[in-house]
Each structure stands twice: as C-alpha cells, then as structure tokens.
Amino acid sequence: EAATTRAVSDRYLDRPSSLSAAYRAAWGRLGALIAMICILIIGYAGSLAVVIVLVALIGAAGAGGIGALLAVLAFLALIPVLILVYVRTVVAVPAIVLERVSGLGGLKRSWQLINGRFWPTFGRMLLLVLITSIISGVVSTIFEVPGNLISPNNSFVFEQVAGAIAAVFVGPITYIGVTLLYYDIRIRKEGFDIEMLARSL
Predict the structure, then answer these.
(1) pLDDT tens by residue, 117-169
(2) What 3-state class would DSSP assign to 48?
(3) Which of 34, 52, 101, 174 would you call most buried, defined as having the most Cβ atoms within 10 angstroms of its Cβ?
(4) What angle do CA 139, 172, 165 make, to 5 degrees?
(5) 177 Cβ contact partners less than 8 Å away, ≥ 6 residues apart
(6) Would you say 110 and 148 are in contact if contact means Cβ atoms under 8 Å apart?
C-alpha cells in the first residue's frame, strides 16, 4: 500500500516514478507504518476487550436473558465505533508516506483531514468497496469456474488460487483510490492545488 501510494503520488504530481523508487520510499517509512498498525490493533483489541469484560460482568451478575440482550447490544454498538475509526484513519498511510510523519502523527493527520468530511469519505469508501467486490467476484469466477469443471474434487484449491489472483487485481485499486482521496481532501480543505501551482511559479 505504501509503495502504491508513492507511485500514484508521483504520477499525480507529474514526477518521474519507478518501481524501485516506490519501494524505497515505502521501506523508508516502514517503522512508522508498523507503529500505526500496532496503535490501531491495540485500539481495536482494547475496544473489543472492554465489551467482553462488560459481557462477563453481566454474566457474573446473573442477569440472564436481559444480560444476553445487553451483550448483543454492546457488540452492535461497537460496530459503528469501528466504522468511525476506520473512516477517520483511512488516509493515514498516504500521510505517513507523503508527509513523512510518525505512525501516531499519520493517524492524527488523517483524523484532522477527515474532520468535517466523514460522510463524503464514508460514501466514497463504500463505493470503492462495491467496485472492488464486483471486480473480485468477476475475476474469481473467471478462474474458478473452469477449474471446477476440469476437476470438481479440487474445487477448494481453485477457489484459493482464484481468490489470490483476484486480490492481485483488487488490492491496487483500493490503494489508488485512497491516495486520490487523500489528495482530493487536501485540495478541498487546504487548497493543495494552489500550493503546488505557487511552488511551480
């Protein structure tokens, strides 16, 4: 994702790009990217742990059917929170790679950029998920169906291979979309295109 972000950014800014330069840039930001992932994992795991402890306490109190209902409601309440965090941190990787901020700095920067742009960002990510799901389904079917016809007993193997091939096509689409979203938000909120024009004069 980091390498794709750099390559897309170079093309967007009309700079020369290469595979080696993209991966060098990604490798240089590896520590910050790992820190960002760790922070998100701790946050998600912590949220889930709070809900599990709450459910355990309700169960220990012997709340019965009401306790089970509260447990279900607690898990359902967690879903919008996780969606909120995902959308608000969706451009953290472009921020880390392109602005060379830390892992925590990338998350803060993403949170700041998405502030006031949650619903448009949510809609675009939903559209991106829909597009990639359709492409993934088509590519998987193209490779899976002939394999199942040739050897029905090995359908699981063909499903796995088809899924891996589909991921090769779909993954970059998501990363490209997120990078372009990052620039779109910067243009709308910070006049990034005007800034770039001023630098070129």
Answers:
(1) 999 999 999 999 998 888 888 877 777 777 667 766 666 777 777 777 777 77
(2) helix
(3) 101
(4) 30
(5) 124, 128
(6) no
Q: In this predicted model, what pLDDT tens digit does every residue of 79-111 receive, in sequence order? A: 898 899 999 999 999 999 999 999 999 999 999
Query: 10: which 2 tokens?
Result: 């170079």
The residue type found at 102 is S
* Residues in the chain, overall count: 201
Alpha-carbon distances, residue 100 vs 108, 135, 160, 188, 198 (angstroms): 13, 32, 37, 21, 22
DSSP 106-149: HHHHHHHHHTT-HHHHHHHHHHHHHHHHHHHHHHHHHHHHHHHH
For the entire predicted model, the pTM comes to: 0.82
Residue type, 6: R
Please state, in angstroms and rounded to a whole number, the distance separating the CA atoms of residues 90 and 85.
Answer: 8
Q: Look-up: residue for tokens 């939903």?
A: 126
Check: CB of residue 4 under 8 Å from CB of residue 172. Answer: yes
Tokens for 118?
Answer: 């949650």
Residues 6+ apart with CB under 8 A from 166: 135, 136, 137, 139, 140, 143
